[in-house]
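Explain this fold:

***
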Amino acid sequence: MLARIVIVDDRSTNLRVYAQYVAMMGPEYSATCFHSAVEALKWLETEHADLLIVDYRMPEMDGAAFISKFRARTVGAHIPAIIITARQDRECRISALDAGATDFLQSPVSHVEFRDRAILLLGQFQKQQELKQSLALNNRTVPGEDDGIEPTGKSMLEQIIDTTPILINATDRNGKFLFLNSYQAALFGRDPEELVGHPITEILPPEVVEREQRRNNVILETGISIPNYEEKFVSEDIELTFHCNKSPLLNKDNQTIGILTTGLDITARKFAEEHRTHLALHDMLTGLPNRTLLSERMRITIDDCNATGKGAALLLLDLDRFKVINDTRGHQAGDMLLRQVAERLSGALDKNGFAARIGGDEFAIVMQNLESQDQLVASCSKLLTQIGEPYSVGGVEQLIGASIGIALIPDDGNSSDELLRLADLAMYEAKSSGRNRFCFFSPRMNQIAQLNAGVESDLRDALNHEQLFLEYQPIVDIGTGNYVGLEALLRWQHPVRGRLVPHDFIRVANDSGLIGNIGQWVINKACRQISAFADEGIILPPVAVNVSPKQFQYSNMSADILENIATYNIPTGRLAIEITEELLLEHNQEVRDQLMKLRSSGVGISIDDFGTGYSSLQYLRDLPATRLKIDQTFIARIENSSADRAIISTIAHLAHALNMRVVAEGVENEAQFALLRASGCDEAQGFLLGRPLAVNELRNLFTGLAPKVETGAP
């Protein structure tokens, strides 16, 4: 029998691919394709289909609306329908389920998945059709006096029961059939007359027989019905689900002589219920358990650990540099990578572990029945190795790492929320320690977290109560000794802890999102100060303001900076920003466009702390930087390390080739100053040349003519 599959998709490429998939299924399957949902509905008014394959997103109507209109027709009530969608939101799938969708496929669809789902649904549909045809063949018209039809010997009630599309049977106390209707007999490919007097064991598998006998015994012993249970029956390798009821079969003396069983086919409804449940408990993109299901399984794990004394662990895994892939390759590439990571995690775990996706590029893993911490260490090392293997994303090889935080169960906590929090602290510790590693939670991390929570609250107050202020450290031309710049440095006069520098609070500012407001305050304050000094007749050298990479996420940095420059009438070239290598790695086209806009408006751009991160010559070449600042860790070793001197000299040559000036940070003595001049550095800053100055000290420094720094270096 030829199965006709109707495919509806407004994109020609998809239609060709899906039609090819159908052809690959074999000659007993055919595809009829439509670009238009309206045309497909019109065609289906007069033609039949055995399976619908419908794209969700179409211009005339979406897939849910198409299925709803089709289901409204009598002929389309039971035909299976698969929705294909690239969307991952639950609302899309719920609306399709409500409209009558039978199954879903996630785009892009593989041939194997397409074939397996289609054949399964076609098999179920064909079986249901065969059962209906069997009933039709057994249907008898009640004979009249003049119709010339021989009586069948069955009463009206018997004929109704026999032709109803519901499983109905009666068995005696020994489990032998007293009666079964044609629907149930056809389900197992037999005639009713063949089975009457025979035990149910002839047509049911052992596990189903066992359940049936157990239920029957309860009724025979108690005389009480068993309503509303589900049972699965397999007919010719097709599994169907029935909603069943059992009740005692009574004789005229009200004695139980057997069991009456009825069952309604709920296969399609059951799928919809299971799919709704799956949607509620699983991640749409990867198919892994979501945070809700993770919490449920963690509660079971915690209870098991407390009852048995066995150990377990929660691993919180966050991918390193995933944002770079999303920004440079696009979200579709990022999604492909996340699915591959999920497959690797699932493949790396045995029956004692399971993985979940809890959001973004963050995964959780629960490992149970741990014998020792060494076993856990080995498992984490294996996970990092497997995640670090190359991925193929759109035909391009991609590398990525991960940071893992570990909380032990029940040693570190006895609730899923608390364990997630502690594992999260450990994961951030792993990231700050260099990434691509794992770290166990310790009480010290909790103490730091509590301190940081207090710092965050105090920071919010600091912004509102003028506790923040700026100091300015001079930058000196190595050749002339002239002051050629100032770096604006943020300070916080804490009401209890006193004067704080960024090292004491900047991480909290970044993690909490306050860095956006703080960054805007710094830019505004620096511009106001430049303007105020100009009003006094004091022209400061260019002032550089540090900008966190996260500030580019929270606001349109270029617009904020240029607005302040215009508001305070800052002359061209008098303001610069300092960015770090992290922004070089994680920059996208939008960030690059903002930097280009600033540069074209006369704002200088310095790359700060160069050499301490994952330097990229490609990004360095493409970004419009004007200065390269060598990190002070190299400067501190320049007197005793020929390797560091060579690195500094190489960086200087590179910067000059890219038309950048080179600034050395952290210069503390005359010997360093001389070696930096010999290495080709253009500018320097540090305690030798000037400590950070308050506003009044800055006024004194620049009141007078052409101030210089005098050093003893030749």
The longest helix spans residues 111-138.
